[in-house]
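Q: I have 143 residues here and want to know how they pack in 3D. Can you give me a structure?
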Amino acid sequence: MKNQNDPYELRPGVPPVDVYRHLRTVAGLSDKAAEAAALGLPNTWFGVVLHHGDEPVGMGRIIGDGGTAFQIVDICVHPAHQGRGLGRLIMGALTGELDRRAPATAYVSLIADGPARFLYEKFGFADTAAHGSVGMYRTAATH
């Protein structure tokens, strides 16, 4: 997935735990414990890592059961590389894979942080409250 004149390359897969944690925190997302990341990353249904040369500068993943439910997570781009349409490139790869392999009746969700909602709307995502449902969440430690 590389254009000869483009210094960025999108590669399928997930980053190593240390890179995953670094990309999340530098992009302003919450950190995840190394143990949690080590357990979760191998369970990725599909993921991509964005490279600038040999340096990972962005990522995105899809998690889910492979048939009925999927969630897009960990969409982030290093701040030094933001504003170049790279989030759109990552989302395009993820939604393209869903279009190719996920059943048409599968439910695909995500949590939009701040202005990222405008990017996600371009890929067909809408507020769940508009359809009589409300998105909810909790952390494992909440209960």
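Q: Anything worth noting?
A: Residues 94 and 129 are 24 Å apart (CA to CA). The first strand starts at residue 8 and ends at 12.
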